[in-house]
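for the writeup, i need someone to sanity check this before i put it in the appendix. the sequnce is what the collaborator sent (i think, or maybe the updated version? ugh). structure was predicted straight from it, no edits. if anything looks off just tell me and ill rerun, i have time this weekend
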Amino acid sequence: MKKFLLLLLVLFLIFLGLTYWSVSVRPEEIKISEVVEKKGDSVTVIATNRYESNSMKRFMQGQNYRKAWQAPVRVAVLHLDSMQVVEEGGGKQTHSLDLRAPNGELYTLRSINKDPEPLIPEIATTLGLENIVVDGVSAQHPYGALLAAALSDVAGILHTHPRAVYVPKQKGLEKWTQNFGNRLYLLEYETEGKVNWTGFSNVREIMDTDDLQKLKMKYPDKVSIDKRALVRARLFDIWIGDWDRHAKQWGWVIIEKDERFKAIPLGGDRDNAFFKIDGIIPTMLTNEIVQPMVRPFEEDIDYLPGFVYPIDVYFLQNVPKQVFIEEAKDLQKIFSDQRIEKAFQAWPEELRKLDAEMISKKLKKRRENLVKYAIEFKEVIDKKDLLSKPLKGSEDLELPKDLVKCFDCL
């Protein structure tokens, strides 16, 4: 027994030593949005060198998408000109600016580079292991949202039309030019606004989930959502491995007809699509027992309950299983090998050479199991209790108890 415990201690010390060795590997100078070539109204830019590694770091913390983060990519230069900065936004990792065009359309600039500092636990800082969290961003594909949008088009799923742009320092950024200028962004439509850009007719407004709940309170018998469209969108999320889909990442296109309102789901923020986890430390930390809601994008889904969010219970619990099956089968039919491969044209050749083959292979494999995933997804939703707490983003609303439970409970 003593020998066994001694062996465990030795192994732990070796692991600890390798961990500190791994986190110590980092570039001497971190460069963000480095422009390597200017040509006309475009630039060739490298997102960051922050995730440079050696073989030890890749072994301990994973290969992830390090090469994509350092790939030189040509993008358009964005001069705001007549666009107006409305406000600064962003989540825990992403810095963003909301913009308004002269015609009233709302856009958002979302930083491709992330700032995970708010997510670093105090103990990690105390132990000098904060690089585990910082380096974990390399599991995100910096341009994954562009591929997700191209695949959404194939599926007929509404999205925010992101495109990569470089924003130089300029007067149009006003007081934000110092912190937001000379950076790489995704420019996309906001998930709210008064102007209809969607192609749907009879659109009253595009609104966030909390405003949809307010509309439901005002007209309880006249407001519904397109449940089939949401089922389809959520199965698509699962297929591309986008595990981070809370209520604030959804907008709703409100169609008004015959004094009734139907809400069409509009998904935004695709940072975690195709999330690639490898390496000893990330694999341990994202085990379903440790962190069930962070799921790796592999050929099969290891833990499907990790994709189920309160928003699914809130909107979809009373949807028949057959709807899930039908939407899964339709997605299988639509996503032929040829259509999957064609979607990668949304990426420049530099990115396709790096990651297209691997991601395409996984998408095709996951496609074959979509019906199985759909059935399990529905079963997990049905096992959940109705909500007892407001959806994320609705915490400050004074909602009736029934509307907290589910959308159709009112």
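The CA atoms of residues 220 and 377 lie 28 Å apart. The chain has a mean pLDDT of 96.
thx in advance!!
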